């Protein structure tokens, strides 16, 4: 039993990543406030509404369906519940990061989430 417990303890404590922004801190300059809409039925990824449209357009360009976007690489635990407000850092997706959609609905523009936290 001790042989199993020690490696698990080391693994759990050694993999802790220090947060670059305190969870209770206000919105940082490079963060964008978004509200989750749940899973996009067409693509199967997170769908969000950006609160600061100008900041998003500055980073990824204009969108026909703004302020609604697909949030790639957003942790499922953060977006599975609708109407959750998050602070995210984003970047424009690379060609290999785009997702295939069934084209049933509108083609929302996407961005890659590099970090996310729940609004305090």
Q: Can you walk me through this structure?
A:
- The protein has 120 residues and is an alpha+beta fold.
- 21% of the residues lie in helices and 28% in strands.
- It has three helices and five strands; from the N terminus they run αββαβαββ.
- The chain has helices at 2-14, 53-60, 76-79, and strands at residues 32-39, 46-50, 68-72, 85-91, 110-118.
- Strands 1-2-3-5-4 form a five-stranded mixed β-barrel.
- β1 (32-39) and β2 form a beta hairpin.
- The protein is globular, with a radius of gyration of 17 Å.
Shape: globular
Strand content: 25-35%
Strand order of the largest sheet: 1-2-3-5-4
- pLDDT averaged over residues: 83
Going by helix content, strand content and strand pairing, the class is alpha+beta
Q: What's the story with the biggest beta sheet?
A: 5 strands, mixed, barrel
CA-based gyration radius = 17 Å
Kindly, what is the distance between the CA atoms of the first and last residues, rounded to a whole number of angstroms?
Answer: 40 Å
Q: Percentage of helical residues?
A: 10-25%
Number of helices: 3
Order of helices and strands: HEEHEHEE
| SS elements, strand count | 5
Report low-confidence residues grouped into runs of 5 or more.
14-19
